[in-house]
Design brief:
By secondary structure, the protein is mostly helical. The chain is built from three helices and no strands.
Length: 59
């Protein structure tokens, strides 16, 4: 690692550690975990939005 990369890694670590935590209720946590472990299928509107974004940005 270069000196700049080490400094950047330290700044990144400080930034993450200083970030406020999420204060979620038990129900909110359950919904969050369910969304991560069992995501909804992509619908046509989202698929079209991604397609248009890729065309516009060349990604």
């Amino acid at each position: 690692m270069t000196k700049d990369e080490i400094g950047s890694a330290r700044r990144e670590k400080l930034h993450v550690e200083d970030a406020p935590g999420l204060n979620l209720s038990v129900d909110d946590r359950k919904v969050f975990v369910e969304a991560l472990t069992n995501p909804r299928p992509v619908n046509d509107r989202l698929r079209d939005t991604v397609r248009r974004y890729r065309q516009a940005t060349g990604v």
